[in-house]
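Supplementary Methods. Inverse-folding protocol.

Structures were first reduced to a discrete structure-token string of length 154. This string, shown here, constituted the complete conditioning input.
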């Protein structure tokens, strides 16, 4: 099932709007964020290519946090101590496309690109999941187990 979700944020003068397109496998619960479209307004753009690469990196890092990364504990200790027990995004889960629309406003000061686009990823994916399935998930990571549970609830 395919779905699209939108999110928007403002951070320290930078405005980011994002659309995520996801594919959801209802049986396994796997969510694949196939495509992102990111509109990014950080005032004056000094280095357009560097800005695009920063945004792409932010999207992939936040995607990993949204779908995979979770520190697990028991009553006494942290259980996530290595790459097996603390999963991160792997190549097969990366988006096939990240389209970026840069809005250059040379009349304004540069306001930054280091983190604003990371804030939009979880909400865009959760909204796309809702569009695809009608199920709401408000906790990350959006694991296959959580997706299957949300789908079973109806």
């Amino acid at each position: 099932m395919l779905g699209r979700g939108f999110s928007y944020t403002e951070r320290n003068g930078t405005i980011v709007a994002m659309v995520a397109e996801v594919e959801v496998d209802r049986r396994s619960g796997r969510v694949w964020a196939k495509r992102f479209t990111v509109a990014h307004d950080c005032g004056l753009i000094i280095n357009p290519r560097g800005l695009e690469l920063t945004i792409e990196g932010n999207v992939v890092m936040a995607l990993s946090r949204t779908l995979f990364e979770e520190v697990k504990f028991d009553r006494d200790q942290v259980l996530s101590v290595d790459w097996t027990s603390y999963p991160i995004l792997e190549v097969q889960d990366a988006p096939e496309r990240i389209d970026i629309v840069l809005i250059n406003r040379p009349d304004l000061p540069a306001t930054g690109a280091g983190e604003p686009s990371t804030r939009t990823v979880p909400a865009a994916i959760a909204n796309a999941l809702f569009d695809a399935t009608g199920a709401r998930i408000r906790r990350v990571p959006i694991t296959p187990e959580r997706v299957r549970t949300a789908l079973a609830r109806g």
